[in-house]
Write a sequence for this structure.
């Protein structure tokens, strides 16, 4: 980028996603003014905005982390690699970068369940989970995850055995934590991709556990009226 | 102000760990990432202007948590309000320009621009907080430590609930830039001298008293200046 760009206020050419005929809110107008200004000043490439949105709406999300978890469930060497060097093990599947520069995987066991929070803002492992959900950024979650984690889990419908201890990871620095949940029972015959489909975003934050596999239909179930 | 000062505790509005009375979390069954189209743009604009290298993530966090409207703003409103502050502080844009969207003054030369063709590579590269150590680590895994009781009024990453508490070093995470210095206003010299970073684990009862569930643990990541031997 060099000196002031000669760009005029021709901001609407690239603004192709607004709703024609509907009333624009004050916030709509504000981001439009900001985009116009930053483009006119040459600070941003407006085409980069669309790429950024598309990246975090479609390309980078919990399906990335689910691949890491499913691989760890079926491959003990990979699981060991995750324990030793999560950065390298996760990068080997193609996931790295912004807000995941220092990734650590924390492994649930029958004795200890992991829960991740950022009480100070909304730190979250973007390369494997995408953008954080609204509740993760909310004041009640940030307040209570550290002080009363079992009641937080209950609000997500997660009832752990009372003997299972809870370990909360408050992401106060640039280390980002991904929970490796316990593999559900009855999944011995599932493929890696079928396993990945059970791994929800919340199970990798620790507020929930993975989905259970669909039980196979039996003759008696089929004949039940 | 966005900070509160009660019982001698200066606390950033962003520092929420353990705060009472905030109600239920109420997670929706299906989560949408954006409620309105403008939120998408707010995210993208923040990432794009952030990628110019005009400020660090610590500057951005410091600006957000210092906003008078931090507690009443929505998440992306906070991001936009902080952008206004960060740009004005550095002379990138004036309040009038930000309000009208019309450029009235020459632009400032920024370290770089994020072009559409570079987005994927830039995101995959990220921005490491690790730096070459200037000294050996003072603590090792298993050592007992106590966290600082200092109540800094500037940006810090030691939550109030974990100040003055006894814990144990669970891991050494490397030598990272220190947010308390790295977030200094542009009027002060830029300072990315690193400090050793540790995961420090606490018993729940050490943090929350006898009412807490015994056996549970909470850990924070804490830079060496936050810690002393215990």
């Amino acid at each position: 980028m060099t000196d002031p760009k000669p760009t005029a206020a021709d901001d609407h050419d690239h603004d192709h996603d607004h709703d024609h005929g509907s009333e624009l809110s004050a916030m709509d107008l504000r981001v439009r003014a900001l985009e116009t200004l930053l483009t006119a000043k040459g600070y941003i490439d407006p085409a980069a905005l669309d790429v950024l949105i598309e990246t975090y709406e479609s390309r980078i999300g919990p399906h990335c982390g689910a691949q890491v978890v499913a691989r760890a469930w079926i491959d003990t060497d990979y699981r060991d690699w995750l324990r030793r060097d999560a950065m390298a093990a996760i990068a080997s599947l193609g996931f790295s970068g912004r807000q995941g520069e220092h990734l650590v995987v924390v492994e649930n066991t029958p004795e200890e369940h992991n829960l991740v929070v950022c009480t100070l803002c909304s730190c979250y492992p973007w390369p494997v989970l995408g953008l954080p959900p609204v509740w993760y950024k909310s004041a009640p979650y940030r307040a209570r995850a550290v002080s009363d984690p079992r009641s937080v889990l209950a609000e997500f419908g997660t009832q752990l055995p009372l003997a299972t201890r809870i370990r909360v990871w408050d992401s106060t620095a640039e280390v980002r934590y991904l929970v490796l949940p316990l593999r559900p029972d009855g999944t011995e015959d599932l493929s890696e991709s079928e396993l990945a489909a059970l791994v929800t975003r919340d199970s990798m934050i620790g507020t929930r556990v993975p989905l259970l596999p669909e039980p196979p239909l039996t003759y008696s179930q089929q004949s039940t009226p | 102000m966005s900070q509160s000062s009660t019982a001698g505790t200066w606390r950033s509005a962003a520092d929420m760990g353990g705060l009472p009375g905030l109600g239920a979390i109420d997670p929706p069954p299906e989560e949408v990432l954006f409620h309105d189209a403008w939120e998408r743009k707010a995210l993208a604009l923040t990432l794009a202007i952030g990628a110019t290298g005009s400020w660090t993530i610590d500057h951005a966090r410091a600006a957000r948590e210092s906003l008078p409207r931090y507690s009443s703003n929505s998440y992306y409103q906070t991001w936009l309000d902080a952008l206004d502050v960060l740009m004005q502080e550095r002379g990138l844009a004036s309040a009038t320009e930000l309000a009208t969207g019309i450029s009235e003054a020459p632009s400032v030369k920024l370290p770089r621009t994020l072009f559409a063709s570079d987005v994927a590579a830039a995101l995959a590269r990220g921005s490491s907080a690790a730096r070459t150590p200037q000294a050996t680590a003072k603590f090792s895994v298993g050592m007992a430590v106590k966290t600082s009781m200092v109540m800094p009024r500037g940006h810090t990453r030691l939550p109030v609930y974990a100040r003055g508490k006894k814990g144990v070093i669970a891991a050494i995470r490397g030598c990272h830039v220190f947010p308390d210095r790295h977030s200094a206003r542009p009027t002060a010299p830029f300072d990315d001298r690193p400090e050793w970073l540790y995961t420090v684990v606490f018993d729940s009862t050490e943090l929350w008293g006898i009412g807490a569930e015994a056996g549970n643990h909470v850990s924070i990541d804490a830079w060496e200046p936050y810690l002393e031997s215990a």
Observations:
- Chain A has two domains: 25-59, 61-205.
- The first strand of chain A starts at residue 102 and ends at 107.
- Residues 25-59 of chain A form one domain.
